[in-house]
Design a protein that fits this description.
Layout: H1 2-20, E1 34-36, E2 39-45, H2 46-55, E3 61-70, E4 73-74, E5 82-83, E6 86-94, E7 98-99, E8 104-105, E9 109-112, E10 115-116, E11 120-121, E12 126-127, E13 131-134, E14 137-138, E15 142-143, E16 148-149, E17 153-154, E18 159-160, E19 164-165, E20 170-171, E21 174-175, E22 180-181, E23 185-186, E24 191-192, E25 196-197, E26 202-203, E27 207-208, E28 213-214, E29 218-219, E30 224-225, E31 229-230, E32 235-236, E33 239-240, E34 245-246, E35 250-251, E36 256-257, E37 261-262, E38 267-268, E39 272-273, E40 278-279, E41 283-284, E42 289-290, E43 293-295, E44 300-301, E45 305-306, E46 310-311, E47 314-316, E48 321-326, E49 343-345, E50 350-355, H3 358-361, H4 377-389, H5 393-410, H6 416-428, H7 434-454, H8 464-476, H9 489-516
Helix pairs in contact: 4-5, 5-6, 7-8, 7-9, 8-9
Length: 517
């Protein structure tokens, strides 16, 4: 019986080799040699598979299905530098690490529903035709450093349980849709020359795209970044991050976007940094939510910058340069732009046109902590100028009044200017309410008329009409009158006369404020 089993085993291996070296037609069913996790696999030694890869001729096709490969597969150990045949591996289980570094693959390479129980390394490999790693699972590290993908590369719906490194790799058209990276994903200094799709990808660890370059459109629509994500100095063509989710700190510091960038309906759960980013065709943040700090300092946009989002903590636009700045609420969130305690930093921001209303900005202008004594007058003046250019006189007036309220609040109690601003506010709301000014003047005159009547001027009680006439004369003219005050009443008259001069000063200030507007 043992001899019979030995013969059957040899025939099984021979049948498997014939199946692997077939070039056309369907693959014969492979014999079942082992059961792993409840599934049956044909068992193949790594050395035998390496021999097939080494001896396969051009235009041939190596097909492997429902097979478990046992042993370490190493191109360096086997001195393998070129694979000429097309590879198609479906439902294959590699029990040990696969190291095919520095190998040139002349034909298409397809891994489908393949499981790598250990590391997979394709570092510095070159793929001259299409490459696919679809619906695969890699339980240890994946290394594609400095690999070259001349044709399409497809990583759709694969699950990478550990770190995934593509640093320095070159891709043409590439698809990473629904890719799941449980460890860190490192795409640093990667070059993408064709269209790239990261839609609905999931990055559970750190996602680093530092200095990555996209020469064609890329989509991160619906992607999930559960940890920190970095796009420092990345270069984009057209980029779409619509409906993505950033759970950790996000940074696009010094990133450059050659075409329009779309960041619509995104949730930034942590701080988002866009310092010194450049948008050559503008950017859209409509409907997005910034739960922490949103930093856009020194951003340069050559087209419209639409920040129609919800900012719950702060929006830092210092040194921003853009032709137009849109700070109106999103259509999806009509009552939201800046949270109740959110701060808006606009120091040295330059824009030719502002789309917003004062109701959305009122009470949110602030100075950075490191510049606690920064004078906000220039910021208020710039906003007021923008409102006036847009024909929004009421908004300009509100901005003007808040600027003086804030200035008065920060002046010391010993400052004469503080009391002048208080009087200016009480009398005419900083020169914006002429009706209030007239009512205050008339009330002041009536009050002093009652005082004169009560104090019995000239040792006798004067008629109220006479007291009103004397009060008007004293307040507006300060000259000779029919009543001659005596005793302590003279000090009261002197005080009213001085208040009259102050009234004329207020009238001059009101007139100047109207002329300046």
């Amino acid at each position: 019986m043992s001899i019979l089993n030995w013969v059957k085993s040899k025939w099984a291996i021979l049948a498997l080799i014939i199946a692997l070296t077939t070039t056309v037609g369907a693959q014969p069913s492979a014999p079942t040699d082992t059961t792993i996790a409840g599934r049956s696999y044909a068992l193949l030694e790594a050395g035998e598979l390496m021999e097939l890869l080494s001896t396969a001729k051009g235009h041939s096709r190596l097909v492997l299905q429902q097979t478990a490969v046992k042993g370490r597969l190493s191109s360096l150990a086997a001195n393998l530098d070129t694979v000429r045949a097309a590879l198609e591996l479906v439902d294959v289980l590699f029990l040990d690490e696969v190291l095919l570094a520095e190998v040139v693959f002349l034909g298409p390479v397809i891994f489908s529903r393949t499981t790598f129980a250990a590391d997979l390394s394709l570092a510095e490999a070159r793929f001259l035709q299409s490459f696919a790693l679809r619906e695969c699972e890699i339980r240890q590290k994946t290394n594609l450093r400095d690999a070259r993908f001349t044709a399409t590369a497809d990583f759709t719906q694969s699950h990478l349980a550990a770190a995934f490194s593509c640093a320095g790799a070159h891709f043409s058209d590439a698809t990473f849709a629904r890719l799941r990276c449980e460890g860190g994903a490192y795409f640093e200094d990667v070059l993408f020359t064709g269209q790239v799709d990261f839609s609905d990808a999931r990055f559970a660890g750190v996602a680093s795209f530092k200095t990555a370059r996209w020469r064609a459109p890329v989509s991160f629509a619906g992607a999930r970044f559960l940890d920190r994500s970095f796009f420092w100095q990345a270069q984009f063509d057209a980029a779409d991050f619509s409906s993505a989710r950033f759970a950790g700190e996000t940074s696009f510091k010094q990133a450059a976007f050659a075409q329009r960038a779309t960041f619509a309906n995104i949730t930034f759960a942590h701080s988002a940094h866009f310092e010194q980013a450049r948008f050559d065709a503008g950017a859209v943040f409509d409907g997005s939510i910034f739960a922490k700090e949103a930093v856009f300092t020194s951003v340069h946009s050559s087209n419209d910058l639409l920040l129609n989002a919800l900012f719950r903590v702060s929006l830092d636009l210092r040194h921003l340069v853009t032709p137009s700045l849109d700070l109106r609420p999103s259509v999806a969130m009509p009552d939201s732009l800046l949270g109740p305690k959110a701060q808006l930093l606009l120091q040295n921001a330059r824009f030719q046109r502002l789309f917003s209303t004062w109701d959305h900005l009122r009470g949110h202008l602030a100075q950075p902590p490191e510049q606690a004594n920064y004078d906000l007058d220039r910021v208020y003046a710039g906003l007021r100028h923008q409102f006036l250019l847009s024909g929004m006189a009421v908004d300009a007036r509100g901005c003007y009044m808040e600027s003086l309220d804030r200035r008065r609040h920060y002046l010391p109690w010993t400052s004469i200017e503080r009391y002048a601003l208080i009087a200016f506010d009480l009398s005419s709301r900083y020169g914006t309410d002429l009706g209030r000014l007239a009512l205050v003047a008339l009330a002041w005159v009536a009050l002093f008329a009652l005082l004169y009547r009560w104090l019995l001027i000239d040792d006798g009680r004067l008629p109220l009409a006479e007291c009103l006439l004397f009060s008007l004369h004293t307040f507006f003219i300060v000259g000779a009158a029919s009543v001659r005050p005596q005793g302590k009443v003279r000090f009261l008259v002197l005080f009213q006369a001085l208040s009259g001069w102050l009234f004329w000063s207020l009238c001059t200030a009101v007139l100047l404020s109207f002329l300046l507007r």
